[in-house]
Amino acid sequence: MATHTGPDPQHPIPPGGALFCPSALLPEGWRSDVLLRWDAAGNLTAATPGSARGDAAIAAGPVIPGMPNLHSHAFQRAMAGLTETMGSPTDSFWSWRTLMYRFAQRLQPRHLEAIARHLYIEMLKAGYTSVCEFHYLHHAQGGTAYADPAELSLRVMRAAEEAGIGMTLLPVLYQYGGFGSAAPLEHQARFLSSPQWMLELRARLQQALPEDGMRRYGVAPHSLRAVSADGLAALVAGLRSQANGEDAPIHIHIAEQTREVEDCLAWSGKRPVQLLLSLQDLDRRWCLVHATHMSDDEYHAVAAGGAVVGLCPTTEANLGDGIIDAPRLLEDGANWGIGSDSNIAINLRSELRLLEYGQRLHHRRRNVLAS
What we know:
One of its GO terms (cellular component) is cytosol. One of its GO terms (molecular function) is deaminase activity. Keywords: Hydrolase, Metal-binding, Zinc. This is 8-oxoguanine deaminase. Residues 1-9 have low confidence and may be disordered. This protein has eleven helices and 13 strands. The protein has two domains: 17-58, Urease, subunit C, domain 1; 67-363, TIM Barrel. By secondary structure, the chain is an alpha/beta fold. It has helices at 93-104, 109-126, 151-163, 195-208, 229-240, 258-268, 272-279, 296-305, 313-318, 326-331, 348-363; strands at residues 17-26, 29-38, 44-48, 57-58, 67-72, 128-135, 166-173, 215-217, 220-221, 250-254, 286-290, 308-311, 335-338. Strands 5, 6, 7, 8 and 9 form a five-stranded parallel β-sheet that branches. A four-stranded mixed β-sheet has the order 3-2-1-4, with no helix packed on it. It has a four-stranded parallel β-sheet with strand order 10-11-12-13, covered by helices on one side.
């Protein structure tokens, strides 16, 4: 079993430094002679246009911000292509999910670490400089606990550290197999936990690998079908009481599939996003992953609260999820970002292109998202 007790002396944190950029894209637009400075923990401390170079290294060309990857399931990179044969004329997200569960049963800690390391290197090459890992593989086969409950989480963190990518780890709370606290499936045993277990895991991670400019820990209630209202409340309240918990990110799968919307309506009388809005204050800490199927009122409320909508165009297309009405997001001023999700393809430009092209097909016009 691997041990994870702190920074690896073979991979020390680089000291603070500076980079002179003849041309750089800042929040206010393109600027010339920008001096970037960062501290020893990797935190950017200054971006000053109109500066002298001094003794700073000089950038080889124009500098733009790195793209955060808002949603990733690292282990699924290793099953890319395995589901691309028709098992049934009615293949869907739900049949894909069954195959994914079977694949997850076979993974050992060393497999997860190797898959994640390779994936994160691919992400860096593609232009992603940080990733939000929606990590729900917690236990050994059959749900047996590891001696260190953080074993698999720390494997993912070590992979990110070795690759050199910024990491926001989002350990996933998974309680049930469906709305109404339905019994979990046998293949979900490796994912199951409680709010208290999840909070203790986050505390263990902070102790083993403290947060810094390259590491952050949040939480991820998997979905409203997998987490009860009481479980969600306990998780969010407990998070706020932890170190760095007040501003810690909270990500959740929501309204990805029409069946999910129908099941939620049948059980609660509310749509998924509508139900979540009634349970929690969706502020800027929240990322609603997918949110593909929303009503007009839901679009407006999500934008008004400041939550981020996490779009995963390649995965959503691959699974036949549907197409979000992206112009509505822009009209309401909603925050949004991109994720690679199931990691069948690691290509930032393709994600953005597919987002635009999907909107062209949906709205039957060109340049839908152009500013």
